[in-house]
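retry 2 of 3: previous attempt timed out while embedding nicotinamide-adenine-dinucleotide. Reduced batch size to 1 and resubmitted. Inputs unchanged:
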Amino acid sequence: MANVETIFQGEHEQVVFFTDPVSGLKSIVAIHNTQLGPALGGCRMWNYESPQQALEDVLRLSKGMTYKAAVAGLNLGGGKAVILADPKKEKSEALFRSFGSFIDCLGGRYITAEDVGTDVNDMEYIFTETDHVVGVAETHGGSGDPSPWTAKGVLEGLRACVEHRMGKSELKGLRVAVQGAGHVGSYLVELFCENGMKVFVCDIDRKRCEALAERYPGKVSIVSTDEIYEVDVDVFCPSALGAVLNEKTIPKLKCAIVAGSANNQLATDECGDELFKRNILYAPDYAINAGGLMNVSIELGGYDERRANRMIRNIYYCIKAILQHSSQEKLPEYRCADRVAEKRIKEISRLKGRYKGENKPTFHGRVVRR
Ligand code: NAD
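retry 2 succeeded.
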């Protein structure tokens, strides 16, 4: 359990609590590591059962962002924020502007963005108070919703997985089970259908699945949230919750590949070992779902969609390298991804200490630490 003592013994650089009784804001920002650059990570708004649970979540998520940025080849560190409130009932201009003004106090060490429970409209309020926010609306020079980019990145990563496991680059005719038809899941279903795949989809909100089945008749079948693990498919694509690859679900899987957008898919590291033992290829979550992060990161230097497309293509190469490493070293894929991240942080962070002249403001007026 995280407490002051464990935080002092741990790896996080900074953990900050913000409260504002007037707006009702209760927030925690965790900056895990800034060796590669400012910590970037979304702001999650969630009705946590306790402040302790929120603290555990923000510590875990911010560490994940360090690894995600590192394998994605970004000059960014890892951080995350949580707002302890119900996103369905407690959103207000005052709350997000108050959060934005606190983020501004961190002087750019932490840059926020959307996450579960927050959206582009909330980012607009935050943007009123600070420049240290990305994922703002296109009208403000931002890149908008990151979800379609996350989905594009997953598709690139899946191509690498299929090539590695099946020796072909063609996705046509493959069967995929998509868990979750939310923002990313819906875009994934669209991309999979466009690529000639047969899609099975589930969501606790069945209406979302029905909308997709209606849009792609004959290509999308709806299954229950229990059945999704057992469908006879080539690919299982988790795009809803974390910890869905666990002791109970892994024995049910009939797929050859797990490749999806959800964060923290493995309940424990041992579950990653178990998938490897069963010869089920696992595309490490933070490597394959980095498309959204890549896209918002481009805002820092002035958003350019062509740069985003080019960067997202790198997910194919990144996953390919991890899979090759895994085959050569006979190591589970998640461990290879960690190695890639840690190696890059070690090798690149030391270059940051070299004097290269003053940082120059970009044409958007933002200073980027390169
Ligand atoms: P979302 O909230 O829009 O969608 C999640 C969907 O999952 C919802 O439709 C929800 O009803 C459904 N769901 C919840 N519990 C379920 C269950 N037990 N079985 C089936 N469906 C269930 O979220 P999103 O933005 O689409 O993100 C999906 C996942 O991808 C999350 O884990 C998120 O952390 C991760 N992710 C998202 C992005 C992004 O750009 N949005 C980037 C990286 C990672």
